[in-house]
Amino acid sequence: MSNNQKQLQGTYNHAYTLAFAVPASEHEDWYECLQNEKEKVIGSLERRLQMIRDNDQEFMEALEGFDTYGEQEDETTNNKGEHSNE
C-alpha cells in the first residue's frame, strides 16, 4: 500500500437520532417537557436504551441516521494534531 493510500484511509463519524417517548408528561408542549421534566425525560431515554440493547428489531427501528463525514487522519499525526517523531 502506498503512503498516499495510507493517508486516505480513515474512519467515519455518523450522526443518529434516537426515537423514544416520554409518557405521562404534565406539559402539552414537548419543549416545556424538556425544560421542566428533565428526570422524566432522562428516565424514559434510559428505559429506551435498555429496550434497544435487548431487542435487535427495536434497535433498528429506534435509530435513524442523518449525517456522515469522513475522519481521515494522517498516520504521522496523533489525535491532538501534533506530529509524532516516528
Task: List descriptors.
86 residues, alpha+beta, two-stranded antiparallel ribbon, 2 strands, 22% strand, disordered C terminus
The count of helical stretches stands at: 4
Helical content (DSSP H or I, runs of 4+): 40-55%
| Shape call | elongated
Low-confidence parts lasting 5 or more residues at pLDDT below 50?
A: 1-7, 74-79, 81-86
Number of strands: 2
How do the strands of the widest beta sheet line up side by side?
A: 1-2
Mean pLDDT: 83
Compute the gyration radius: what is it? Answer: 20 Å
The quaternary state of the protein chains shown equals single chain
Please provide the ordered H/E string of secondary-structure elements.
HEHHHE
Strand content: 15-25%
Distance between the termini: 18 Å
Structural class, from secondary structure content?
alpha+beta
Q: Describe the biggest sheet? A: 2 strands, antiparallel
Could you give a short description of this structure?
With 86 residues, this protein is an alpha+beta fold.
